[in-house]
Amino acid sequence: MKNENHNNWEEDQRKKEITMTSSDSRFNQTLRNVQGLLKGRSIPGKVLLTRRSDPLDDSNLKESPPNYERSYSYNDAGTSDRMAKEVEDEVRNTSLQTTTTIVNKLKVSTSNIDHTSKEVQKSSIGARATDSARLAKFTKELSGTTIILEKLRELAWSGIPDYMRPLIWRLILGYAPPNSDRREGVLRRKRLEYLDCVSQYYDIPDSERSDDEINMLRQIAVDCPRTVPDVPFFQQVQVQKSLERILYTWAIRHPASGYVQGINDLVTPFLVVFLSEHLEGSIDNWSISDLPSEKISNVEADCFWCLSKLLDGMQDHYTFAQPGIQRLVFKLKELVRRIDEPVSRHMEEQGLEFLQFAFRWFNCLLIREIPFHLVTRLWDTYLAEGDALPDFLVYIFASFLLTWSDKLQELEFQDMVLFLQHLPTHNWTHQELETVLSRAFMWHMWEPIYIVIVFGSLSMSLWIDQRRKSLE
């Protein structure tokens, strides 16, 4: 009898071990599946995202949950395991309800991903900005007496046609009013206000400036010739004078930060976009001296106010010690660790700190890292994000960094630093940029669901193990 009881006890123990092993195996597989999703394995090559308010196909949403659920068979366990299964189902259903809620909230703003080769080919011309259908949508949104900015941002996220970009940037930044009847009057008033500021702060002798203001102006004068040095247009003396006026006036008007190196780069996309309304052809052939002083002043004013609007949303990026940037660099490190643990571990083992390369990325918003002809397309997405831009930058920069995941894992510290400081992007086209943005959007969209699935499943697993032990 004792032997029989002993054998039954051993048999129960084996069943429990098999059940727990099976559970752990399925749980680990779930983690691997989600990690694979976040690493972009489910993204078929270079995809193009188009933000629009069309509802997602409910059939697709219904098919997704089984890929992430942990399965649990009644045949694998005894009574205590069936109780655990019921508890797990309850917790899992709660997690899935939370997940569904998140997905529903994302329906309005998420993108439709086109997987056809035709759309992939179109991505090379810049986010389908020249598609006739998209042009029609932009035209429709801009034709109303009062523009609905949220719809305009959704369209702008995937790229803006060149000739529409100046107007749309002014609108989505809140510089130009959405009401067309007020727009001309507001712009005229703001441009005159800028001229008054230049006259008051810039066009004065050094004897009327404080020592700090003199030093700041000298630093700006040194930095302007260094701005986008590989684009000849920015080496024109008159262009550098325009940059100097804009930067110094902005710094005086924002004493909490003053001028910080890197802000000079942030003016350049605005300058190019607003000059494009007056100068034709390639930027390589532009000469700002061809414009009358009134138009130059208007362009400078638009750059000044749009720069102010942009930096209003990230004020602590440029105050003392730049705490906003330091915070985002830390978030970037954590995000990379969650998405690509091998490359994160390798960088840590080599002693590479994210501040050593990512600080410049956040400080200059990648302007120094990609070819300048791609910058305005990247900034379409930046400006469309609005107040959410600082947080979304973390996903863009993670996607940008992990473009070279395999390469980074082959490099030691010194070579890695040199590689990250001189990334091989000089031959990049719109296609590579669209890939970075698409992947960033996918990670940003799925992370709340990832947290629910992974950490919800982890808590569930621990709770079930504790419950089993209490019933033994």
UniProtKB/TrEMBL annotation:
<dbReference type="InterPro" id="IPR000195">
    <property type="entry name" value="Rab-GAP-TBC_dom"/>
</dbReference>
<dbReference type="GO" id="GO:0005096">
    <property type="term" value="F:GTPase activator activity"/>
</dbReference>
<feature type="compositionally biased region" description="Basic and acidic residues">
    <location>
        <begin position="1"/>
        <end position="18"/>
    </location>
</feature>
<feature type="region of interest" description="Disordered">
    <location>
        <begin position="49"/>
        <end position="76"/>
    </location>
</feature>
<feature type="domain" description="Rab-GAP TBC">
    <location>
        <begin position="159"/>
        <end position="386"/>
    </location>
</feature>
<keyword id="KW-0472">Membrane</keyword>
<feature type="region of interest" description="Disordered">
    <location>
        <begin position="1"/>
        <end position="24"/>
    </location>
</feature>
<keyword id="KW-0812">Transmembrane</keyword>
<protein>
    <submittedName>
        <fullName>TBC1 domain family member 22B</fullName>
    </submittedName>
</protein>
<feature type="compositionally biased region" description="Basic and acidic residues">
    <location>
        <begin position="51"/>
        <end position="61"/>
    </location>
</feature>
<dbReference type="InterPro" id="IPR035969">
    <property type="entry name" value="Rab-GAP_TBC_sf"/>
</dbReference>
<dbReference type="Pfam" id="PF00566">
    <property type="entry name" value="RabGAP-TBC"/>
</dbReference>
<feature type="transmembrane region" description="Helical">
    <location>
        <begin position="441"/>
        <end position="464"/>
    </location>
</feature>
<keyword id="KW-1133">Transmembrane helix</keyword>
